[in-house]
Write a structure and sequence with these properties.
Elements: H1 7-17, H2 25-29, H3 32-51, H4 55-78, H5 84-98, H6 120-141, H7 162-175, H8 184-206, H9 212-232, H10 236-260, H11 270-279
Helix pairs in contact: 1-4, 3-4, 7-9, 8-9
Length: 287
């Protein structure tokens, strides 16, 4: 017997947890929908560990995320929809199909001739073409939608986090020529949306219950910010998470400074807090 457990052991464990007579009551109650929040949480914890370069905990977080896949596979197996081996098989086939520049004969054993390797632009074009073919095939075999229902934006899940979906929508539209020619008009649009947001805010001062326009304009501004990030080749979600960490570190630093001086945070004026804020800038680079 091996000293280390395997993926087969993890599948067995999952099956045991779901046993209606001897399994775990909590696990037995779960379904596809109920574990989605846990899946999202585990994915975020993986990202957090990577961003903190916490590779000790990353191993544990990756295990938690893998367990989510095993859980879905067990549910699929119970419902006769799919099983773990089927998930693996489909994924390997898909990745071989999408990487003809690595697997030229469409088999895992095939090897590309480095002398005939396509350049990055050709690889990207091939990737997009293959994914478009997959979407067309899925649409034809799926919901029975007519050609009028089909869109070049099909396949971008509505349940994605809003910022992630905004970027994917923009990238898909841009791949079909619907895009700004360069970054200059994006900056112009940013200023335009700020002014429109100000106008919407001013409107709510006299009509406080009419907030639809305010939400619309704020959403437009955020959408442009995502567009700007795309042109800057910056991941907007990662950039915001970085700012969140920076704010968290600086705020905690203010608390430490005040605590060391025996001062009550809530009793300080905004100007006093801002002065300490300015003094602790950069603390996140050493924490």
């Amino acid at each position: 017997m091996s000293d280390r457990y395997t993926i087969e052991d993890l599948k067995t464990l999952m099956s045991r947890l779901r046993d209606p007579e001897t399994g775990c009551p909590w696990d037995c109650k779960q379904d596809y929908r109920s574990i989605v929040p846990h899946t999202l949480e585990e994915a975020h914890e993986v990202a957090d560990a990577i961003e903190r370069a916490d590779y000790v905990n990353l191993k544990d977080e990756l295990g938690d995320l893998l367990f989510q896949v095993i859980f879905y596979a067990q549910l699929g197996n119970e419902d006769a929809h799919f099983d773990f081996d089927g998930i693996v098989d489909q994924q390997v086939r898909k990745l071989i199909r999408r990487h003809p520049h690595v697997f030229p004969d469409g088999t895992l054993a095939s090897v590309v001739d480095p002398a005939n390797r396509p350049d990055d632009a050709e690889i990207k074009a091939s990737w997009e073409r293959i994914k478009a073919e997959e979407r067309a095939s899925q649409a034809g075999a799926g919901s029975g939608a007519t050609s009028q229902d089909e869109s070049r934006l099909d396949g971008i899940a509505a349940s994605l986090p809003a910022m992630v979906r905004a970027e994917k929508l923009q990238r898909r539209a841009a791949s079909h020529g619907f895009d700004w020619p360069d970054i200059t008009p994006v900056f112009d649009k940013l200023h335009e949306e700020i002014e429109e947001l100000k106008e919407a805010w001013e409107h709510t001062q006299s009509q406080p219950d009419d907030r639809d326009a305010l939400e619309d304009e704020l959403g437009d501004l955020m959408f442009v910010c995502v567009n700007l990030a795309r042109f800057l080749k910056v991941n907007p979600d990662q950039a915001l998470r970085r700012t969140n960490r920076k704010f968290d570190a600086r705020f905690r630093a203010i608390e430490r400074v005040l605590a060391s001086q025996g001062r009550d945070f809530d009793a300080q004026s905004l100007s006093d807090l801002d002065a300490i804020w300015q003094s602790v800038k950069g603390v996140e680079k050493t924490d």
